[in-house]
């Protein structure tokens, strides 16, 4: 039954064949009950199935007898029957919960699902092992000119490693949720915006936990700069870099909606931006300088270097930190301006990811 109309009547085993005869073939691995619910959630398909069953009943011998009896009724009854049988199915679809209720429930569900993965023993052990390894390599870097590259290497590694880590995790988020999202959206369970925002809110503390767990001990153990203000600035750079990479992962996943292809694209993207980030090469060959525009995280390394190389009261043995900044060509804009660039990319990519997911979810529904 659908809105008081008969859609199918018969053996349970015959419903799949009946739907296939009407042009709606159920995939072998799909639950027929869920498939029927999805069909009936579409008003157009629902009306077609109602009309199909009505015509089937009229053409059946038993159905002809039934309709013959009805035809002998009064004209008023006939008009009522025709109205019921031929009236288009219209129903106002309303959300069963408010936007805030949807957001709250989905955020709680997403957080409970992801916390088991993000804070698993394997991931925590991996972070601790990486932290110990980096501390052993860069333990108490001296403030001397010969160790300038060591400092820059430590800054670069601290931001890039977590950009890789977060990007690889976020790129598969939407492709893996696609089937569940399609079913729940077709049943009008929640708005797409509620789902998308709940994912951002629930994953935010989980994404930042491991980079913070790594950066805090590594910063002080490697002696980057014994100043709390500089420490906070560097921590913000690392965390914002991770969030920006997550934004690109969301965009790739929402646009491609295929795990393998999304991972491939994100890997090429990450390697390209790492090369263009300013650590491996600072002066591109003539004619290739425009590639710097394609570097989606242009402020990441400069922001980290500026926050660390401007040593203030802790000068190098003979070269002040400002000279290093000028030599590296980092004196054009302040470090916080580079952070604004990163933040801009972070926000814009998330907005684009939402509209891409919205477009693809509609296409998948059709």
TrEMBL record:
- Recorded GO MF terms: ABC-type transporter activity
Q: Name one GO cellular component term.
A: plasma membrane
- According to its record, how does it sit in the membrane? Multi-pass membrane protein
Keyword DNA-binding listed? The answer is: no
Tell me where the transmembrane regions lie: 122-143, 155-180, 201-220, 232-251, 263-281, 335-357
Q: Where is the ABC-2 type transporter transmembrane domain?
A: 101-290
Coiled coil regions in record: none
Its recorded name reads ABC-2 type transporter transmembrane domain-containing protein
Q: Which organism is it from?
A: Rhizophagus irregularis
**What high-level taxonomic lineage is stated for the organism?**
Eukaryota, Fungi, Fungi incertae sedis, Mucoromycota, Glomeromycotina
